[in-house]
Amino acid sequence: MPKQKAPPCTKAKRIGNLIVFECQDSKIKQGVIKIHQGGDRSRRLNNPGAVEYGDHAKEHGAIGTDGRFAIFPDMKTGEEAHKKLLQREYYQRRTIRKTMYKYAPKHENNTEAYIKFLEKSTGRSADTKLKDLPSGQFDKLLKGIRRYEGTKPPRTLFAPKDMASYIEDVASGKASPKPRKESPARIKEMFKRASRSAIKHHSGGTH
After folding, report:
1. Measured between alpha carbons, how far is 69 from 141 in angstroms, rounded to an integer?
2. Where are the alpha helices (DSSP H) in 62-182?
3. Which stretch of DSSP H or E encloses residue 192?
4. What is the DSSP letter of 178?
5. Which residues pair with 18 in a beta bridge?
6. What is the model's pLDDT at position 5?
7. What pLDDT digit, counting tens, does each position of 51-68 carry?
8. Which of 14, 78, 76, 73 is closest to 42 using CA atoms?
9. Residue 148 CA, distance from chain mean position
10. Confidence category of residue 198, pLDDT binned at 50, 70, 90
11. 120: which of 18, 85, 112, 142 is 20 to 30 A away, CA to CA?
């Protein structure tokens, strides 16, 4: 039996320590929400390159923000947005080192460790300009950044769309984290975790 495709998602936002996507399942003709919980921040947002929310992200498929970084509908879209970002002339004419000083500034990251990780990933000096990287090594640079930003996937669950408002009420303290009777059993644990606590952010630069 072929694997069923996940319903397309058109909006997303952070609610407490969860990322909640609004999706449409055409097969059952009703809205659903997809919930991402835990895992690394970049994976929770379908944003493996930690692309900040802004014009570039919106032009390349972002459907929301967690307050700083873009949320994409799926990993493929997030990967493409990351690739297109580093293909811009702004980054292409810079070296790996200068790119990372901008991408992951020292006041938020151990930038030197990040640069050394990318040198090892690409096999090239940090003084190499991005435009001088052969396509294969440019791909290694992208993959290196994605690995450094985090590889642990979130837990993913689906629920009826009308549960979104309840989750938000729990996160804001307006409701008790006790699932309604009609709540799917598999998401009970999530209601206990949907609290006021902010996401444990992974630092990233202005990009």
Report:
1. 20
2. 75-86, 89-92, 96-103, 111-122, 135-149, 163-172
3. helix 188-193
4. -
5. 15, 37
6. 62
7. 999 999 999 999 999 999
8. 78
9. 13
10. very low
11. 85
Q: CA 126 to CA 141: how far, in whole Å?
A: 11
Token pair 């799926």 in the structure block, residue: 74
Structure tokens at 64: 């929301």
At 177, is the secondary structure helix, strand, or coil? Answer: coil
Instruction: State the distance between the two ends of the chain, measured CA to CA, in whole angstroms.
Output: 42
Q: Give CA–CA dist 194/204, Å, rounded.
A: 24
The angle formed by the CA atoms of residues 140, 39 and 33, to the nearest 5 degrees, is 110
What pairing do the DSSP bridges indicate for beta strands 70-71 and 64-65?
Answer: antiparallel
pLDDT band at 203, cuts 50/70/90?
very low
The sheet carrying 155-160 orders its strands as: 9-15, 18-25, 30-37, 155-160
Distance separating alpha carbons of residues 142 and 119, to the nearest angstrom: 12
Give, in order, the Cα–Cα distances in Å from 172 to each of 12, 14, 191.
17, 12, 12
CA dist 101 and 111 (Å) reads 7
d(CA 100, CA 116): 11
- Rounded Cα gap, residues 84 and 127, in angstroms: 21
Instruction: Please state whether the predicted TM-score (pTM) of the whole model is above 0.85.
Output: no
Structure tokens at 24: 């449409």
The SS3 assignment for 166 reads: helix
